[in-house]
Amino acid sequence: MAYQDLQQAAEVRRSIYALNKNLPVSNEEITKIVEHAVLHTPSSFNSQSTRVVVAFGAEHEKVWGFVEDALRAIVPADKFEPTAQKLVMFKAAAATILFFEDQDVVKGLQEQFPSYAENFPVWADHANAMTQYALWTTLAAAGVGANLQHYNPLPDAAIAKEYGLPESWKLRAQMVIGGIAAPAGEKQFAPLDERLKVVGA
Fold first, then answer.
1. What mean pLDDT do residues 10-27 have?
2. Is the pTM of the predicted complex or chain greater than 0.90?
């Protein structure tokens, strides 16, 4: 495997918001991609605390129904239209991948290694983010569009109840995926010399 293949996949990975239900690969293939990311993404102390739920079809739309219900409870009706338009866009996609962190695992490590206790929640989020990136990049290489949302904690309780999830699972992000209806726009980059320093070379 050439490292350029990984770099090319990283460049293809973009936030795609115009999605439809026409996935270029099967639900089974999507599931295998998710399984690979969950298995092979590293985590501090090999904690393996990241948890994932994949919701296809009607279950995907149900997830966004929970988000809508939670938002309607806090957003005034006369200001809800922009939010409603976003939710329609998310529901138009094919599936949602929900990312969680198991707080029981995190707390267990805090108790086992008290000197690092304050770091374990941060490290857990690092592992979760790496899982998101590994999965997102692989999906992009498969021609699947995706965008990442963070409506937690608003729908957390409803989602946990619907799918029988343990109380220890803390929702961290929602990845909306589907067929690409329209590509992402041109990406703007901040100057590298403001973001990178190389010493000793």
1. 98
2. yes
pLDDT at 180 over 90: yes
Query: Comparing C-alpha atoms, which of 20, 53, 23 is closest to residue 35?
Result: 53
Q: How far is CA 110 from CA 42, 50, 51, 103, 117, in A?
A: 18, 16, 19, 10, 4
Mean pLDDT score, 167-191: 98
Q: How far is CA 90 from CA 7, 13, 47, 144, 146, in A?
A: 28, 18, 32, 15, 10
Q: What is the pLDDT of residue 188?
A: 96
- Distance CA(108)–CA(167), nearest Å, equals 15
Quote the pLDDT of residue 115.
Answer: 98
User: What would you report as the CA-atom Rg of the chain, rounded to the nearest whole angstrom?
Assistant: 18
Give the H/E segment covering residue 48: none
**Residue 145 CA to chain centroid, in angstroms?**
12
Domain ranges of the chain: 16-182
Tell me: pLDDT of 163 over 90: yes
pLDDT score for 1: 82
Pick the CATH number of 16-182 from 3.40.109.10, 3.30.70.920, 3.40.50.300, 3.40.1190.20: 3.40.109.10
- Run of H or E including 145: strand 145-149
Nearest to 106 by CA among 127, 85, 90, 120: 120
- Given a cut of 90, whether residue 125 has pLDDT beyond it is yes
Distance CA 59, CA 163 (A): 10
